[in-house]
Amino acid sequence: MITIQLSVFFMIIYMLKFLTITAQSSLTAVVLGTEWVSFQRLSPVEMILTSLGVCCFCQLWSSMLYNFCSHFHPSYEFWYFRIVWEFTNILSFWLTSLLAVFYCVKVFSFSHPTFWLKWRIVRLVPRLLLASLLISCVSIIFAAVGHYSKIQLISKRHFPRNSTMTERLEIFLWDFSMRQQVVVLIIPFLLFLASTVLLMALLFQHLRQMKDHHTSHSNSSPEAHSTSLRSLAIFLIFFTSYFLTLLISIWGVLFNKGSWFWAWEAIIYALVSIHLTSLMLSSPKLKRVLKVRYWGLEAA
Fold first, then answer.
1. Quick one: CA dihedral 99, 101, 107, 112, positive or negative?
2. Which of 29, 52, 80, 114 gets the highest tally of CB atoms within 10 A of its CB?
3. Which long-range CB contacts under 8 A does 76-82 form with residues at least 24 apart?
């Protein structure tokens, strides 16, 4: 059983991660949003990153409100915060998979110039963003109905009539809810996994071709490919870790989540912070802003 002191410690870590992710998502949305307002255009990658920034910001606040309200005042009145968190979490998975698919198509088109999807995906990104939003809305309808039904059944526990049937329905709804949460996350995750692995294979193939036909003026290109491969590997590891952590949290295995609640939340949002950092570094504009901020802090 985890001690109160450790719970407080992990709660502080969770709050630090909350502040970090708030700053990251806000910076992403503000920088790229200002770019859109100023020039009335954004690249496809920046559109996806802006959407992810807004999505992570909403996800973080809904998580924080739900965690603190349900932990210090356990009640099913706060279930709508949980629904908002689930919706933004599903949407963030679809947006991340969309980003992986876009990069995969872009790199694949380098070695296959006639690839027909090369030009279409650039124009399709706004529609794909809308499709991700609609899929997330449809997915969350089932979750909302399930949560509402569970609350109605729990409120009728004290009625002696049909108690056996009520218990069976409650077990069925809990089982359905867990399976539904897993399914709506595993589909975009598998799409992300397939796209990222294919992207790494394409980059590795290009890198090997460059080394076979190395010239004195192309030394920087293999180095850039190697850096991209390392970044993708790190991104894949941490996003997969985040996905597995969510699965463990959903199924409630390995340990008692009640006693390790804040430790588990701190681990989840540490992975979210690393995930956001890797996404921010993939944007030249965001990387430039981070460098300016870093040098400004050093100069001060």
1. negative
2. 52
3. 76/151, 76/154, 79/147, 79/148, 79/151, 82/147
> What's the pLDDT at 29?
81
- Enter the pTM of the model: 0.83
CA distance 177 to 150: 10
- Beta carbons of 242 and 268 less than 8 angstroms apart: yes
Q: What is the dihedral of CA 135, 141, 146, 147, to 10 degrees?
A: 110
b or e along 101-140 (b: 16 or more beta carbons within 10 Å of the residue's beta carbon)?
bbbbbbbebeeeeeeeeeeebeeebeebbeebbebbeebb
Distance (Å) of CA 272 to CA 1, 20, 52: 26, 10, 12
Cα(135)–Cα(187) distance, integer angstroms? 11
DSSP classification of residue 216:
G
**Structure-block tokens of residue 5:** 């002191």
Confidence of residue 297 (pLDDT cuts 50, 70, 90): very low
Query: Distance of alpha carbon 55 from its chain centroid, rounded?
Result: 9
